[in-house]
Amino acid sequence: MRPPLRAVAMLAATAALITGCSSGDDWSQPHPRPAAIGSLGPGFIDPSTKPAPEGTVRPQPGSWAGVHPSKDYRVVLLTAGDDRPTKALVTAIEDWADDEHVDLRKIVVGDAHDSVSSIAKAMEMGPDLIVSAGNDLIDPLALVTPNHLDRRFLVVGAELAEPTHNVTAVDWSGASFRGEGLGMSSTYDPDSFTTERCAAAIRAGVAAVLNDLTGIVIWVD
Q1: Is the pLDDT confidence value at 56 over 80?
Q2: Phi (first) and psi of residue 182, to 5 degrees
Q3: Which of 12, 26, 89, 161 has its CA 20 to 30 Å from the CA of residue 194?
Q4: What is the pLDDT of residues 155-183, one digit of tens each?
């Protein structure tokens, strides 16, 4: 039986949204478990205690700078929205991937109704980490992530209201959108999404994930 034309069109549209900044590696093949190259600097966390689930840590600026992903780290960037803060985050993530030789694939969510299916597509690709940029993804992530605890997610420039242990967020006082009808933070400031802040967000977040500090919010004010 031939698939409905609507289904074929949807699959083609989804495929068209996936772009790569990759080495050409076939993700269907297994590769070594990613590891942190280098160590977190003093002041990232209190070494005497592990952060509580859903807790917030406030690392010293630059304490994440010594941590890099191992070779061929597989990352899917999910992005939704064309506002300036989202564009700044996407640019920072792509620049980080270039600098660190990360195998990055990108899925652009063009319609809010496609968010959940786009997250599912990202998981099917089998990355080491899924990074999200854009407030429109927060509610769909809150719906999907508790049911896929084996997948790691990193949210930059926003956070989930009740993250599970597989979801890490990087936020600051000018961002902190939490979705779920909570509305925009009263301190929200699109001008706070500077090149420097967005670059710090992706690097601090990945450093935490690579060190198994997940299910927390990293505050980079």
Answers
A1: yes
A2: -80, -15
A3: 161
A4: 999 999 899 999 999 999 899 788 766 55
